[in-house]
Every structure is written in C-alpha cells, then in structure tokens.
Amino acid sequence: MADNDMPSAALAEVNTSAAHAIGGTKVEVIKKLFTWTIENYRPWQDKGSHEGEYLTSPTFSTGVNDESKWFTRFCREYDRFKQKVEKHALSDAELTILCEISEMVVVNNSGQPQIMDRNAIGGKLSKDLGNLLDNEKFSDVILVVNGLEIKAHKSILAARSDVFAAMFEHEMEESKLNRVVITDIDYNVLKDMLKFMYTGTAPNLDKMSSDLLAVANKYALENLKSMCEYALSTKHSVKTAAETLVLADLYGAGQLKAHTIAYIKNHIGDVMQTQGWQDMTKTHSHLITDVLRAFGKQ
C-alpha cells in the first residue's frame, strides 16, 4: 500500500518528531610514499623488446585503513627514457622509483550515530512487539538470570539471533525444557538486550554500552554491537582508552578498535601513564603492536 493510501486511522497512530542535528565535514589529505626497487635492471633495459613492454610493481595500500590498493607499471620507451636512465645507471644497476600518492578523504561527523539511530521511533510494530515482551502473552520460553525469570518468545529470539536459533533448532536442553539459564549476564543487561531484540532500541545504551557490547557479541546481534561501538567511541578519554581497546579486541569490534587506536595515537604519552595501559601490556600485549603499527602508517 502506498503511503498516501494509508487509512486515516493508521495515520493517527504514527508518531512524528522533529530534531535539530549538528554536524561537520573535514577534508583530509593522506600522503603515502612507495619505494619500488628493480634489481639488476640493466639486462631488462638492454633486452631490446618492443616499445610498450612494462614491469609491474607489487601491490601497495593507502588510505586510513589501507583500503585502497595500487600498483605501478614501468614502461620501456627507448628513445625518450633510456637515455635519461643511462646517465645515472651503473653496469649492474638497481633502479629505484619513489612514488608519492595523495588521497583526499572527506569525513562527515554527525551528532547522531551514523550506523543506527538508537533514539529513532520504530513505529507501531516496534511498540506492539515491546508490549508483547512486557505483558508476556503467548510466551514459550523462560530466560533465567540469578534466579530471576523473564518470559520470551522463541520465534522472535530465533529470528533476531542465530545463536538462539541454533539453540532451539537442535535437541539441546534449553529447547527441551523451554528454559535457558544464563550465568554470565546481569539481569538488567539481559532486559535491555531483549528490549533491543523486540523493538530495535536500547534505552540504557549509554549506561550499559560495555556490557551490551559483550552480550551483542555473544548472541550475534550485529546492529546492537554497532550501536555499542558508536556509544563507546564518543566517550574516549585518556583514562579509559586502553580499557576500551581491550574491550574492542576481546569482542571483535573492528570499528571501535580502529577508532580507539587513532585516539591513543594522538594521546600516546598520557595514555601510557595510566593504569589501564599498564594492565593492557600484561594481559593483552599484542595490542601494543597494533598501536605501534598505526604510527607506521603516518
């Protein structure tokens, strides 16, 4: 049904809102140097093949996350190029070519999450599913945390999470008893996770972003994971940067990890003085290599 054909009764139930958003755009120029050395160049130069024959360099990368791939081709042009090289080439010379690439990157910064707006109104469907969770009608599974129970619906949990789907599809104890005992999640965190699974919103995301990141990773809730990554990336500080980096690495949060490494790179002296950094060097020492690698990409 087209939007303008929607019955007036339905239109009356649609929530509308207005918001003032702020943002900015930053243009960055990233330069990358690539040195290509051709060993024993002279025999190839003197080979006497047809004009237009070329050598191809290894592939090299540029960009903030090395997302751009490049290669260089060196073409033989006898009349024009050979005479210039012979002035500098030795009898068994190496030819070194230095290539500088400048890439322009346009970065938009918005006051709202770019991956998902956690405050967006999901409409009547979201509201109805939220009510279904709250009133527990037609529930067919019980989630138990620290002796506290929450009733839910297998079909919704399975549709939203491949982990729950696998749990209910196979002859596991949880599927037979219609009861899932969870020992590594706080009750309030579980409630917020279920709220997201039913409505697409996480009311306490700012307070629970670290805990919700862990459960989103455990139950393969990629959208919730992205929301947590964004929330944590907006709260970087010198004191917590190393702890956030450990969280990102532990739960496979690639965007958050890259953002945190960039922050640490710009505040490396102060971050290295924190207790979080000292703890990280003992328990997750491989992350030091990741931070140092960022300096090599300057």
TrEMBL record:
Statement: the UniProt record of this protein carries the keyword Cell wall biogenesis/degradation: no
Primary localisation category: nucleus
Subcellular location: Nucleus
Matching Pfam families: BACK_BPM_SPOP, BTB
GO cellular component: nucleus
Keywords: Nucleus, Ubl conjugation pathway
Alphabetized InterPro entries for the sequence: BACK_BPM_SPOP, BTB/POZ_dom, SKP1/BTB/POZ_sf
Occurrences of domain BTB (ranges): 139-200
Gene3D superfamilies in UniProt: 6.10.250.3030, 6.20.250.50, Potassium Channel Kv1.1, Chain A
Domain of life: Eukaryota
Family in the record: Belongs to the Tdpoz family.
PANTHER family the UniProt entry points to: SPECKLE-TYPE POZ PROTEIN
Protein name listed in UniProt: BTB domain-containing protein
Organism listed in the record: Glossina austeni (Savannah tsetse fly)
